[in-house]
Amino acid sequence: MGGTFDHLHEGHKFLLKTALSISEYVEIGLTTQKLLEKKK
Smallest Cα–Cα separation from 19: which of 6, 7, 5? Predict the structure, then answer.
């Protein structure tokens, strides 16, 4: 599961809860602020 979650909101929480409800294992990757700034 991937995404830019720099401001966690209800939609993100729903996505995470849904992923956890349909899978035994959810892998979430983290990125650095530097990479996030390059993306913008």
Answer: 5
Q: Cα dist. 4→13, 21, 26, 35, 39 in Å?
A: 13, 21, 16, 10, 10
Residue 38 · residue 11 · CB < 8 Å: no
Using DSSP, state whether 15 is helix, strand or coil.
helix
Which pTM does this prediction carry?
0.59
Which tokens is 30 given? Answer: 């983290």
Q: How far is residue 33 from each of residues 4, 9, 13, measured CA to CA in Å?
A: 11, 18, 21
pLDDT tens readout for residues 1-16: 666 767 788 988 898 8
